[in-house]
Amino acid sequence: RQRLLRRFTDAGFRFPPLVHPTVVVGDAEIGAGVVVCAGNILTTNVRVLDGAFINLACTIGHDSVIGACTVLNPGVNVSGNVIIEDGVLVGTGASILQGIRIGKGAVVGAGAMVRTNVPEGEVVVGVPARPMRKS
Q1: What sign does the dihedral 21-63-105-16 (CA atoms) show?
Q2: Is the dihedral of CA 119, 86, 65, 90 positive or negative?
Q3: What is the pTM of this model?
C-alpha cells in the first residue's frame, strides 16, 4: 500500500478520501486515499493519515492518530489519545487502551487487548497483548 500510494502521488495523482455515508465523524482530519467503511465512529480531534484503511464498525477515540497506510480490520476499538504509527496492521476485534503508542510496521493480532506500548515491527497477540514467541 505504501509503495503504490507513494508511486502514484509522486507521479501527480491525488486520491480523495472515501468515507461511507454511515460513518459518524466528530472533528477529524482525513488524509488522501483514506478509506473509511460503514459503521465507524471517529470522535474528536482524530487524524487519519494518507492511505489508511478503516474497515467496518471501528471506533476511534479522541485525540488519536491513525498512521499512513495503517489497516484497522473490522470491529477495532481505539481509545483516546492513541498513536498508531505508519504501516500498522490491527486485527479484527482488537482493543487499544488509552494513551498507547503502536510503533511503525507493528502487527496487533485479532482480539488482542493492547495495554502497553508496542515497539516498531513487533507482533503482539492475546489478552493482554504480549509479543509472539519465536519458534
Answers
A1: positive
A2: negative
A3: 0.93
Cβ(73)–Cβ(56) below 8 Å:
no
* C-alpha torsion sign, points 15, 20, 21, 23: negative
Position 134 confidence tier, pLDDT thresholds 50, 70, 90: low
Task: Answer whether 31's CB lies under 8 Å from 13's CB.
Answer: no
Give the position of cell 485525540.
63
DSSP, residue by residue, the chain: -HHHHHHHHHTT-----EE-TT-EEEEEEE-TT-EE-TT-EEEEEEEE-TT-EE-TT-EE-TT-EE-TT-EE-TT-EE-TT-EE-TT-EE-TT-EE-TT-EE-TT-EE-TT-EE-S-B-TT-EEETTTTEEPPP-
Average pLDDT over the chain reads 95
62 is catalytic: yes
CA 119 to each of CA 67, 83, 131: distance values in angstroms, whole numbers, following the listed order: 15, 12, 10
Catalytic pick from 47, 62, 104, 130? Answer: 62
